[in-house]
Amino acid sequence: MVRDTMSERLDAGRALRAAAPHALLGTVRDHLAAVYGATSVRLYLTDYGGTVLSPCDDSSGDEDAPLLPISGSAEGRALGSQERREQQVPHGDAIDHHLPVTVRGDRIGILTVRLPGDRSTPAVLDELRQVVDQLGHEILVAERDTDIYQRVRRVSRLTLAAEMQWQLLPARACTAAQYAIGAQLEPAYAVHGDNFDWASDGDELTLTVTNGMGQGVDASLLTHLAVSALRNARRAGVSLADQAALADQAVYGLYQGALHVSTLLMRVDLATGRMEIIDAGSPQMWRLRGKSVERIELDRQLPLGMFEESHYAPESLTVMPGDRLFFVSDGVYDAPSPRGGTYVESALARALHATRLLPAALVPGAVLRDVAEYRAAETLDDALVLCFDWFGDGHD
């Protein structure tokens, strides 16, 4: 009997779309068992800190299943390389296939499928890749209607401020033909004022890096207002300067200058690499071009909400294919060492150069781990790193 692989893939997609939001794993498990003879299907999701893979189960989580370290496990190596990995199962011919679950560059987790040895053919594995891609998209859709997948990502409880910040974020990574983005907040479970945002309409990409004043929920509320105001203006189709001015008015209107928001606001023309940038506060911009790392000095303008009806003027910069841009908050560059000195004075350029071979999605976590070691602390003050790789128009 000749298998109709196209029909089987369509069946998997239809089944996932028809499944209840909380039942995606069970649906995939049933499909892979029936079509490919899979004897085990396990889903692991990346936690908020990006350090462990947490097991997911349809029935509100398998609390007895162990967390897997991203550094040092076969599943973690598959996530990092974005290539499937195989492990021979002891006492038999079955093979565990660790398959990255990734959506537009956002590394959601790993699906581990155990197949009999004679079913582990290249053709079957290519088909599994299609099923995994469908699963990743459906998880993102399902998160609108169930808390299961977000609950799995938490290895400890988020503070209320962190909950507000994570719900405000677009993703932690994104890839397109012209660019790749990776970003991370720390401390992941207690972050409050730092934030990042991006959006692309096919012709241009808008990036923002935000650092609200204060601590806890107050800082999160301030940042939430600023980011929402920037999004509202961006979606109205106004200029970059008007986006900054409207967000400035929104923040000043509520806080009357008592609190303000430091923001870097950027728009990239995806056909040319030309950038418009407004530096309204403390986040810094660095560039890696070839082997050279340098800070890009920008015209400093007023933070959003400091004074009534501030005016903003963008400046221009052109990125070249192969450029890597870094955006860091003061929690990174001003991080102190117990021996004296700040991270920007002693270690930032070295860390950015040392991570040059990593994909953009992995760079922020690596830099933030280096900052933590520099501070000789397990956790950081509010800190953000965003990495932006520019490939240029027509990149394959």
TrEMBL record:
UniProt-listed PANTHER family: STAGE II SPORULATION PROTEIN E (PTHR43156:SF2), STAGE II SPORULATION PROTEIN E-RELATED (PTHR43156)
Source species of the chain: Streptomyces tubercidicus
The keyword Hydrolase belongs to this UniProt entry's keyword annotation: yes
Region (Disordered): 71-90
Lineage of origin: Bacteria, Bacillati, Actinomycetota, Actinomycetes, Kitasatosporales
Protein name (Swiss-Prot/TrEMBL): Phosphatase
Domain PPM-type phosphatase: start-end pairs: 176-390
Database matches in Pfam families: SpoIIE
Alphabetically ordered keywords of this record: Hydrolase
GO molecular function list: phosphatase activity
